[in-house]
C-alpha cells in the first residue's frame, strides 16, 4: 500500500517464488542476448572493409607484401582489404594502433620480425608482442644477407680476415641502434671473434646506399631491399642467415657453413589482430590466407622478393613470437644493447 495525492492505493505483491522465477528468467534472457550480440559479428564477419595496417612507409618490402595480399584476400572474404600505412617511432605507431583497436576483425597488422626485436631492446615500447595480439599466421620468411661494396673483399673469409687484422677499422652499417641489423652485427662480431666499427643509420635505405658508395665496408639487409644494387653489380653478397643455401642463391654461403651457426635467422612477415579477436574470425582469416598463399602467381611474386611464401597456423605463429622475443632479448643482453 502506498499513499499518493491523499489517496491510498493498494498494490498487489507478487509471490516471492514467482518473483524470483521472473527475475531469473529476465537475467538469463539478458545474458543470452548479450552473448548473441557478441557472437553475431564473428559469425557474419566481415560486413565492411578491413584495414591492414603496415607500420612502414609505402614502397618498402612489408608494404609491397601487404598490397600483394590485400586484393585476393578481400576477394575471398567478400570485403575490400585496404592497406593503411602508419609508420613512425620504429614501427611503434602502427603497431600500437592495432594493439589498441577493437578486436572485431576490421583492424589487422602486417608485422615483421622487428615487432619482437623492438620489444626485446626497448622496455618502453607501448605494446607486448606476445600478450597484446592474436596471431593469425606467418605469410613468408626470408634470410638476411651480409653485403659489401663490389670489389672491396673477395668473400666472407676475406672480410673476416681483414676485420681480424685491423680490429675496429672496418665500418659496418645498420638500420639504426637497436634494430635487428644492429643485433646481427653484434652477433657476427661475437661468433667470428672480430671487432667492427658500428655506424647506425636512420633506416636500411641510407645504410645500403652508403655501402654501395663504399663509405662503409658492410651491412645486413634483406634481399628485397638490396636487389637492384646486386643486379647492377654494385653490391656483393657475402653470406646469408638461412639454415641452408637457397636455390635462388646457390653461390651464397650460409653463416653456419663459415662456422657461425648462431647467425641462423629468418625474418618473417605475418598477420595479427588485437588480443581478444574471436576464434571464428581467426579461423576464417587463416583459411583465407592459406587460400591466397596457394596461388602460384602470389608465390612467384614473393620469390622475386626472395621471400618464401607460406600459410602458417596461429599456434605456430604464437610460438615463434615467444621464441624470437626471448632469443633477441638474450642477444641484446649479451651485446649490452638497450634503448632505455
Automatic annotation (TrEMBL):
Any matching Pfam family: TctC
Keywords assigned by UniProt, alphabetized: Signal
Superkingdom field: Bacteria
N-terminal signal peptide: 1-39
InterPro entries the record matches: BUG, Bug_dom1
Family: Belongs to the UPF0065 (bug) family.
Protein name (Swiss-Prot/TrEMBL): Exported protein
Biological source species: Bordetella parapertussis (strain 12822 / ATCC BAA-587 / NCTC 13253)
Amino acid at each position: 500500500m502506498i499513499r499518493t495525492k491523499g489517496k491510498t492505493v493498494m498494490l498487489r505483491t507478487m509471490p516471492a517464488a514467482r518473483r524470483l522465477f521472473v527475475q531469473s528468467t529476465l537475467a538469463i534472457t539478458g545474458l543470452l542476448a548479450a552473448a548473441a550480440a557478441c557472437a553475431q559479428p564473428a559469425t557474419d564477419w566481415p560486413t565492411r572493409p578491413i584495414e591492414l595496417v603496415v607500420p612502414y612507409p609505402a614502397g618498402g618490402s612489408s608494404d609491397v607484401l601487404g598490397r600483394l595480399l590485400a586484393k585476393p584476400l578481400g576477394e575471398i572474404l567478400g570485403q575490400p582489404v585496404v592497406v593503411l600505412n602508419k609508420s613512425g617511432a620504429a614501427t611503434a605507431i602502427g603497431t600500437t594502433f592495432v594493439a589498441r583497436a577493437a578486436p572485431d576483425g576490421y583492424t589487422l597488422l602486417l608485422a615483421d620480425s622487428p615487432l619482437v626485436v623492438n620489444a626485446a631492446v626497448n622496455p618502453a615500447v607501448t605494446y607486448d608482442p606476445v600478450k597484446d595480439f592474436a596471431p593469425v599466421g606467418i605469410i613468408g620468411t626470408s634470410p638476411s644477407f651480409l653485403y659489401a661494396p663490389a670489389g672491396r673483399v673477395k668473400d666472407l673469409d676475406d672480410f673476416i680476415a681483414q676485420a681480424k687484422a685491423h680490429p675496429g677499422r672496418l665500418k659496418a652499417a645498420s638500420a639504426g641502434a637497436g634494430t635487428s641489423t644492429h643485433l646481427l652485427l653484434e652477433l657476427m662480431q661475437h661468433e667470428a671473434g672480430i671487432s667492427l666499427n658500428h655506424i647506425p643509420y636512420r633506416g636500411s635505405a641510407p645504410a645500403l646506399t652508403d655501402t654501395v658508395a663504399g663509405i662503409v665496408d658492410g651491412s645486413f639487409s634483406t634481399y628485397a631491399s638490396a636487389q637492384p644494387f646486386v643486379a647492377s653489380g654494385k653490391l656483393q653478397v657475402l653470406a646469408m642467415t638461412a639454415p641452408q643455401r637457397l636455390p635462388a642463391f646457390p653461390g651464397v654461403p650460409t653463416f653456419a657453413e663459415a662456422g657461425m651457426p648462431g647467425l641462423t635467422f629468418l625474418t618473417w612477415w605475418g598477420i595479427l589482430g588485437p588480443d581478444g579477436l574471436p576464434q571464428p574470425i581467426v579461423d576464417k582469416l587463416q583459411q583465407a590466407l592459406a587460400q591466397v598463399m596457394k596461388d602460384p602467381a602470389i608465390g612467384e611474386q614473393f620469390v622475386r622478393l626472395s621471400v618464401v611464401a607460406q600459410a602458417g597456423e596461429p599456434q605456430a605463429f604464437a610460438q615463434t613470437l615467444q621464441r624470437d622475443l626471448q632469443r633477441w632479448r638474450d642477444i641484446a643482453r649479451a651485446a649490452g644493447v638497450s634503448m632505455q
